[in-house]
């Protein structure tokens, strides 16, 4: 999940993100979710957004077999952005 | 590709990103690349990074059959972030 939201909503988005996923980078979350939890995450994010201004993209893949994840530089994903 | 780089390097990262991919959101790029271009993108990003501070994550998938992309709010991907 990657989001680009107005300054006033960044903390709320961070809180919702951490409820369901792991923080990996500024405005970027990752995690494994059941379909039901995924729907709930989308609903929670939908409630806090200003839909005329903010943007959230959800990338999902059913299997990791055909995908890779590579990092350059720092692995930030300590699970807590303020550590 | 998602990146979280120091203020001084944001423009450089944006320029490299746009050379290979489409801008879709703040610090988020998408696109289809050959393996060779993907290596080049990683090399170019690698050159501009401060590896002790910055972070870039590349998510790749060989087929879109097992993945989805959903947007809440604004679809920003006009290809030019300053439009």
Automatic annotation (TrEMBL), chains A, B:
The keyword Nucleotide-binding does not apply. Keywords: Antiviral defense, Endonuclease, Hydrolase, Magnesium, Metal-binding, Nuclease. The lineage of its organism: Bacteria, Thermotogati, Synergistota, Synergistia, Synergistales. Pfam families: CRISPR_Cas2. Its cofactor is Mg(2+). One of its GO terms (biological process) is defense response to virus. NCBIfam families: cas2. It comes from the Bacteria. This is CRISPR-associated protein, Cas2 family. One of its GO terms (molecular function) is hydrolase activity. It comes from Aminomonas paucivorans DSM 12260.
């Amino acid at each position: 999940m990657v989001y680009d939201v107005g300054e006033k909503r960044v903390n709320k988005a961070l809180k919702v993100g951490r409820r369901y996923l792991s923080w990996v980078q500024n405005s970027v979350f990752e995690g494994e979710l059941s379909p039901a939890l995924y729907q709930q995450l989308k609903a929670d994010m939908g409630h806090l957004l200003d839909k005329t201004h903010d943007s959230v993209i959800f990338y999902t893949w059913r299997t990791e077999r055909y995908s890779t994840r590579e990092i350059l530089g720092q692995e930030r994903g300590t699970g807590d952005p303020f550590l």
